[in-house]
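Q: How would the structure tokens look for this protein?
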Amino acid sequence: MNSADTIAAISTAPMEAAIALIRISGPLAIEISGSLWAGRRPVATLPARHAEFGRVVEDGAKLDDVLLTVFRAPASYTGEDMVEIACHGGVLVSRRILSALLRRGARSAEPGEFTKRAYLHGKLDLTQAEAVMDLICAQTELALGAAAEQLEGRLGTRIRALRQQVLEILAHVEAYIDFPDEDISPDTGAAMSARMASASAEMDALLATAGRGRVVREGLRTVIYGEPNVGKSSLLNLLLGYERAIVNARPGTTRDVLEETVNLRGIPVRLMDTAGVRETDDEIELEGIERTRRALDRADLVLHLFDASQAPTSAVDAGSAKVLRVLNKSDLGIHGGWSIAADAVPISCLNNTGIAALEDAIQLAATGGADRGSWSVAINARHQECLEKAKAAMIAAQKAFADGLSPEFVAEDLRASMNAVGDVVGRPDTEELLGVIFSSFCIGK
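A: Here is the predicted structure in token form.
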């Protein structure tokens, strides 16, 4: 990417629609769009943020009637001069206008280049830039709310406050190193340790949101597990609201892991219907059972289905995943060995009963009972990696200080911690990182 270029792209989906939007941003945005403009006033004289009706014309031929809006630097999305052209939504019409802009000197924008320019011009920090794509991809209310909060800058605000906190500790240590004769005494051991512990605790608090961040963005990985014929596929179909899996009384019907995502009370839940686990000599069924075990290893939540009319059997080994026992076929009666309040949720896929209680239990397992408002800060995998580096460096600084090492060692660890925190919101020397982040964006955004 060359920020000196003027870029253009179609920012709406490539399909038939009422309106398509074409964006141009860069030093020649007004000049290039003006060279195709036929309206009452030249583009260069149009007031900012005012939609003007006119035509786009090339070589005397009208391409379309459009609405054109000028956004002047720095008061634009990218922080540069920017023009938006709203034309009729036909695929061919929008492409003809874009091609004309490219012939006049614009360059096709790369994925995420508009938002990258917004970041480089200080309109967004890196957490807000990432939130733009989260907002576009959100499929549940929870994901939408979390992305909107991050776009507003809630996470960035906490990160900058944390970086400032570490910076102030570092500044005190470096002042003591640089001016030993200026009567700048280091904090007492207890005070310095408390300040570093406070910063470390904030890192822990942010790291604790990593799990909810993954759930918000990727969904709660939920494995439906159990012996054959306990109703796993029936439950999948019931939660999805349509017939996705084949339901048959014959054992071994499900041979593979079927995965679908459902919006359960605003929470994205990735439901995985698995092969029933039993002793078998069937090679294909054995492969299905092995895939079931691999799904368990990656699960956040396991819905362990039982036949309610049968005696309880042993619990599944689900590693770190939460396990929720579900008693299907409760319409046939519940075996006396079950203690409903303590052990399981009774349902009947046949009669569609108990599903609301099951959804309550899944919601509780997903949120831990926390109010959804607390999910407004939910770090992603990149943030987590940066904060883990910051925490490790802070722990090293705490140890160096406690061991009475030279202040230079403490300062070096504090500086590493501060830089790692700063990487969350972005630093000017992170070009390779920016390439990775913005390559996942759609063109035109």
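The first helix runs from residue 29 to 34.

Residues 364 and 371 are 10 Å apart (CA to CA).

Upvote if useful.
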